[in-house]
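Slide 14.
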Amino acid sequence: MLRDMTFSRAMLIGRQRLFADAVEVILTQRGVPSVTVVTDAGVAAMVASSTRPQVVLVDLDEDAEVRLRAVDEIRRADPATVVVGVAADVQTVPAARELDGLLSKHAGVAAFMSGIDAAVRGERVVQRPRVSGERNGQTGVSLTDREREVLCMLGEAASGREIAKELGITVNTERTHVRSVLWKFGVHSREEAVAKAARLGLIGASTGPLATAERKAG
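Slide 15: predicted structure.
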C-alpha cells in the first residue's frame, strides 16, 4: 500500500465514457495530477508500464474477467499497485481475484473518494449503494447551487452552449457540472437525469420530454 496514503497517478480501465469523465473530474478536483483512462483492457498493462499508476480503478460492469486479468498483469509488474473495482451492483462482481476495494457507482462522490482513500490506507472496503431517495421519501441528492441551475436548464431542454451562455460559464465548465449531476443521480445521460429529477421533485412537472418538444417546436 502507499505509505504516505496519498497518490498522484491513477488509471481507470473502462469504456463507459460518462463514468470515466466523471471519475477523471473527481480525481483531478481532488488534486490527482495524472489520471489515465484506458478503454481497451488488452493494452492496460502496457500503458501502466509507462504511466506507472499508483491506484488503478477498474470498471467491472462489462468484460469483468478480461479486465481482472489485465489488473493481474499490472500487479505482477508492480505488486504495490492499489487496485479498486467499481460496479453498479457489487454483488455481481466475480470474487476470484483479490481486490483492495470494491466500490459502488451509486454510493455518492464523498463515499466513493472515502473508499479509495481506505484502499490506499490498506483497508479493504466493499460498499453498498446508498438508499435511494425514491424509497425513503428523501431526494438523497445533494447539489450545489450551480448544479441546480444547470439541472433546471437541462429540464428546459437547453443545449450545452445555451446553458454556458445563460450562466456565463465556458462549455467545458458546463460539461463538468453536468458530469457531476449525472454522477450524483447515478445515471448516464442528461435525459435520465431530467427524468429522475422530475420524479424527485427537484424540477417542475413542466420540464422533461414535454418541455423538449415545446422547445423544438418553438
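Speaker note: The beta strands are 9-13, 34-38, 55-59, 82-87, 101-104, 125-126.
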